[in-house]
Structure formats: structure tokens, C-alpha cells
Amino acid sequence: MTHNELVKHIDTRAIVWFRRDLRLDDNPAWEAAVTTHREIVPLFVLDSRLMAAAGVFRRRQILADLAALDARCRSIGGRLHLVEGDATTVVPAMAARLGATAVHVNLDVSPLARQRDRVVADRLAERDVRWDAHWGGLVHPPGAVRTAKGSLSQVFTPFWKTWRTVPHGLPHADPVPSQLAEVLDVGDCVALPAADAPPPFAGGEHGAHERLRAIDATVDDYPATRDLPAIDGTTQLSAALRFGTLSPRRVISVLGTHTQGREAVARQLAWRDWYAHITWQHPTIASNALRPQYDAIAWNQDDAGFDAWCQGRTGFPIVDAGMRQLAHTGWMHNRVRMIAASFLVKDLLIDWRRGERWFRTLLVDGEVSQNAGNWQWVAGTGPDAAPYFRIFNPTSQGKKFDPDGAYITRWVPELAHIDTRFVHEPWLAGSLFGAADYPAPIVDHAAARARCLDAYSIVRDIAR
Ligand SMILES: Cc1cc2nc3c(=O)[nH]c(=O)nc-3n(C[C@H](O)[C@H](O)[C@H](O)COP(=O)(O)OP(=O)(O)OC[C@H]3O[C@@H](n4cnc5c(N)ncnc54)[C@H](O)[C@@H]3O)c2cc1C
């Protein structure tokens, strides 16, 4: 008996339930299903509550990614079955109706996904359907990178040092399912809703792989350009990783780690793994400070300040440029995310959770683990976070990372004609600036810094 004949005897029909792994390449759930089952039903559950919560940019991105995945499934004889509803009901019902013996998934660290998966797995078990869970969205799954004592390092550098030494295996190419299993079209599904506008990034695995190939030519400049928001100097792969149109193992296998630039990208993927592992350990990461004493900070309930920040009208050009880039494109450069987030938390003394929610609504790559992990880093409330006394000065950050104001003027047109000497401090331009409709700074940075240090120092020593 050939290998293929053998595997077709192993099991019968399986569902591959796609969630944040919208690809066939290096997809462990897909590979396991097609190599152990005779018939495969690809499924995605469109939950209207989740789609509404996804925000405009992620909605556009996921619709494009789903269309691309459907096209791939059709090219091998099946289709992506889109079913509307709550996954805890839809998945067990589909499994029962189709007589599936297993449901294959790649796991997700988000607390809501874990809760949902527990319910689905229990309901499947009641029907004798196997829940076959894999990890496909991280280089290393939670638990794979440990300290000598066997725990998760709460400091990034030791995590990174171990992370680099743990073998992760090579990514697996799509195992040509038509030779192994039949990909079915069992009908009975809804049409993909139309998107109101194109996605922020080219959809599907093809788009992500094109981007990866393009990056291969420029990645060696990454250490020099990654902090300059005016330049397209980062990979812009975060949305592809967020929706899983690209596997992080594939990124490492294509780029390698043999130059400083390539190693630097791998290090960022280690940060991504680290925040995912921290979230697995602390599912309340978006609601509780991981250093709990900082939950006692007397945050400022400054709604006018919060609105000005959201709209990009704080009067601090680099902050406003970032917030407008976010609102217009669903993406913001990492350096500017740090500056804008620091401004909200430290200059306005507004609770980091409000900013985290705003970012998560708008970011095309927004997800709990990465967003809350980074917000807690900026706020100084998480593990290995920026120390509370490190308070970015938005003006000097702007001068350092956008020296000629090219990024600022792209997003803040009111400053397009200001003398470059004043682009970071338009309030100094006086009459030279004229009547341009750009706000005066909403805080005095030096006074705000002192207020922040006071608020943090009051709670810093509680329960240390
Ligand atoms: C306040 C704040 C909120 C953030 N929210 C998110 C979020 O919701 N989702 C998200 O994916 N990233 C988030 N980040 C991290 C980072 O800003 C983005 O991953 C990065 O800007 C994406 O652009 P890129 O793909 O060009 O990154 P590159 O610099 O090219 O990095 C390559 C990949 O490494 C990962 N990475 C890079 N920086 C980080 C980081 N600081 N933490 C974790 N992973 C990283 C990303 O997956 C990224 O695609 C946030 C950062 C801050 C400061």
C-alpha cells in the first residue's frame, strides 16, 4: 500500500477551522488534516459581533484575506466554507451534520479565543469528535522557551537568548492536498460580504509572500532605517502575521539570520512570541497591570485630552502625525507608536487601557497580546517595561527620528509650509506660522513630566 493509500484509511472526514491562520503554507492544522483524513472541509466562522469589534481596517483586511484563501481552496477543488454565527454553536453543529471525526485548529493566545475554544472542544467531545489543536502563529509556542528553572522569563533578553537556541524546525510547504485528501465543497454557506474599500495590505498569502520577497532585498538596512518613520524601513508584515497569511517560521526561513539586519528582524519576532507567551500566562493583560501596584495610579480622566490625542490635535507634531497615520491607514510606525502611547500615558496621565482600546480598534495588526503587551511596556506597568521615569520628550523624539519633518508634513498638512526649523515646535514660529489651523500644545511637557513622576512615585513602592 502506498503512503497515500495508507493515510486515506486512517480517518475519514475532517474540518479545518481557520481562524488566524489564513494560509495553506506552513499551516500545521492544515497539514495534519490533509495527511490523516480522506476528506477535508475548510471552514471559517463569520461572527458578526467579532467583525463589528474588528474595526474598519481589520474588517477590510480579513475580507481580502478570506477571499484569497477561498480562491486557493477553489484551485484545489473545494472552497472555503463561510458560516455565519457564534462558533461555539456553528462548529459542533457543522461537525455533526458532516459526520466529521475531527476538527483541526491552530491555537490563539487571546483570552476570548481560549474561552471559545474550551467550549467548542467540550461540545465536540460530547459528540465524539476529536479536537486536534496545533500551534501555527508563533515561532515557538508557549512553554517552549524556558529559563533553567523551567519558567517563562519575565525579562526579554534572557528569553531572546534562549529563543534563538530552541529549534523550531523548518516551515512546511503546503502538502499538495489533492494527492492526499479531497478538499470538499459541501455548500450551505454564506457569500463573503463586500468590503467598503481595499485592504490596507495586499490580501492573502500571495500578497504576504510578495512583500516578504521584496523585503529580502532591503532587510540589511533594517537596523539603520527601522526607527525613521518617513522611510519605508520596516517589514510591514505585522498584518500578515496577525491574520496568519504568513507564518513567522517562513519569515525566518526566507530572510535567515546571517546578517545584522536579518537577526534584528528575528529579534522582533521573538518580542512577538514573548508577548504571546506572557498573555498565555496572564490572560488579563489588557485589563490589569502586570505589576499590580501601578493599578493604583490616580489616572487623569481627561476626556478633552483623550479626544485631542485620538484626533491628532495635541499640538505636538510627531504625536499628531502618528495618530493621523493610524486613523487614515490602520497602521502606525513602531517608533511613533511608542511616542504617541507615551504621550497619552505620561504627558496626559491618561490610563493606558483607554489608549490600548483605541489602538486595538484601529490597528490593522491590532491584537490583545501585542497591543496590551506593548502598552504595558510603554506605561511601565508590565514585565521588563520602560522604567517609569523614562518619559519621552515628543519634541526631541521628533527631531531625532524625523529630522527634516518629512513624516510630520505627510500627515499634518497644516505644517506643510512651515519653515523646517519650526516643524517640531510650531509654537515658536510666531507670526511666521500665520493663521494655520494647527492647535497650540495641549500640555506643557516639563510640567506634565513632573506630574507624571509624582503620580508614579506615589504607587511605585506598594507591594514591591
Ligand atoms: C503602543 C504599541 C502598540 C502596539 N500594538 C501592536 C499590535 O496590536 N499588533 C502588533 O503586531 N504589533 C504591535 N506593536 C508592535 C510594533 O509596533 C508593530 O509590530 C510594528 O510596528 C509592525 O510593523 P512592521 O511589521 O513593519 O515591524 P518590523 O519592525 O518590520 O518587525 C517585524 C515583525 O516583528 C514583530 N514586532 C516588531 N516590533 C514588535 C514589538 N514591539 N512587539 C512585538 N512584536 C513586534 C511584528 O510582528 C512585526 O511585523 C505595538 C507597539 C506599540 C509601541
TrEMBL record:
Key words of the record: Chromophore, FAD, Flavoprotein
GO molecular function, a single term: DNA binding
PROSITE patterns linked: DNA_PHOTOLYASES_1_1, DNA_PHOTOLYASES_1_2, PHR_CRY_ALPHA_BETA
Positions of transmembrane segments: none
Coiled coil location: none
Matches recorded under InterPro entries: Crypto/Photolyase_FAD-like_sf, Crypto/Photolyase_N_sf, Cryptochr/Photolyase_FAD-bd, Cryptochrome/DNA_photolyase_1, DNA_photolyase_1_CS_C, DNA_photolyase_N, Rossmann-like_a/b/a_fold
Protein name: Unannotated protein
